[in-house]
Amino acid sequence: MKTAGQSGRVEGRAAPPRLRIAARVTAAVFGAYGFAWGLAAFGAELGALAGMAPAEAVTASSLLALVVLPAASLWAFAVPRITVGWAVLGGGGVLLIAASQFAGKFAGIVGP
Amino acid sequence: MTAKTRKLISSALRAAMLWPHTWAGVTLGGLLMLIFFMGSLAVFASEIDRWMMPATRVGTVETVPVSLDHAVLPAVEKLAAGRTVRDWYVQLPDERRPVMALQLRTETGNAGGMATGDGQLLPPVGTLGATYFFYPLHYSLHLRAGFIGYWIVCFASVAMLAGLISGVIIHARIFKDFFTFRSWGQVRRSLLDLHNLAGVLVLPFHLMITITGIVIVLPIVLPAGVQALYGGDVRRFYDDALGNYSRPRSGIAAPLAPLDPMVAEARRLWGGGEPAVVFVYNAGDAASVVRINRALRDRISLDVQPVFFDGVTGQVLKYQRPGPVVATHRVLSGLHFAAFDHWPLRWLYFLFGLSGCVLIGTGMLYWMEKRRVAHGVKPGAGWRSVAAIACGSTSGLLIATLAMMAANRLLPAGIPSRELVEVGLFFVIWIGSAVHAAVSTRTDPPWSEQCTAVALLAAACVVLNWITTGEHPIRAVAAADWAVLGVDAVLALTAAAAWRVSRRLARRRDPELSTLAEVTDHA
Questions:
Q1: How far is A34 from chain B (nearest CA, A)?
Q2: Where are the domains of chain A?
């Protein structure tokens, strides 16, 4: 497994260390939270679509997102290239939120 | 196991985990120390309350159930003193709190008080005690506006989780550490051993308590699902998930139906159990609602099984059981609350919580010792501020807590806003001890002086309790007042331990570079 420890030198050439650390810390704080947010929102919509009671779907998806959150935070420090980290956490978060919005619209059309 | 571990956790991953582990600890260690320490105190909040509110040491609660109609309602009327009451609630007496606590919302403001089981109002307690000061400090830092305190505490808790996970990754030799503690070596080595020992032995508890702490307020700090399915209305989510019920005032006056039959009906619905809290919303209105919560002491789950009654007709309005996932959420929350009646487990929660303080504190100390090796014995401003924070959040926090307890016994009963004077003293003395640490840190923070202060204050608390209430340990044993005896015993132990530590530290020579051998370990 390739991680940040091995590729630090390669990255060091690309960006000044201060900026690199800032990118990782913000990814770990905001990127990971955004990703967890997307997971909780999409999971809740998906659960509701699958016929779960809304309160059950919200609770289940939030608990899952809470377990993912610290792991995603740490992964932002372990991933070799922080651009990849931001793409997965930030991009994934945006995609999941968009998917939850879509699922919500869909539920609005087919639902009661 | 080890071969698999080696493949799973490469040395590069371990190296990558070191930076977030170190800096999350250094930046949030002080805050986490406050959260863990106040959480540990909160385990015995009722007992500390008895110590800080001597008027409520009325002996064990009578076995006869409290009558709401004959004992509670007259007390509510006396507290209202002629004002129109809009909502009120009562926490009924239990084994640990032999008095009932009343809170009223009237047209002209709030009122609160305590009363004995037969409805005799007690004089104002003049303190927030542990239940209303130490405990909220643990989960909200008393920053209520916009739940900002919840956000800060949960942010630190996620960092704690990340710190625990990264700590395990950095330090994959978990089983070896069950047997590793080298106290005879250098300070830095034994600090790391103690850090690892506390981290490894109590890891399951630390993981459980940190994650369940966030779980309790999850709909508030991660409201994504509530946003998606409830349009962001947390109240509607809670109504749905926990079976809560509310309705607006009608404006038409109507008398309250007898409450005791409602309690009997709630008992029947629960199939046993005791009522713990009774709420009356929209009192005196045709739309009044009575809510009865079940006591938590006979199970783990934090599900209070609320039964809602129409306040005028006395008919059940709503009694809804949670679904399986919400029930799981309540069990996870209950694991954190530890409201169940189990004394050995309560002591374990207290000790394991303090072991979290040891984990965080030794982590900060280890960082300081290691930096000293890198920077020499006269380190810079960054090192000194971490040293001041470490000192202020350990011995300084103890000093502030003990000073508040001493002030609780010293301040006269009649002074205005007595409870706020106590709280003010807590914060002034806490800030003062942090400033003292910042100013007097040269090669080391003023551990020895502050430990002496801790020892003297803790001893003073025991003596002051004796002088001001007449309740010395022998009388407490005779009266079977285990709450006061327990608090006094822990205070006395604290005094003895802090005194020993301060004497040992005073004898210790200033650190020299020769005793701080070069960095050899992996962290």
A1: 10
A2: 31-105
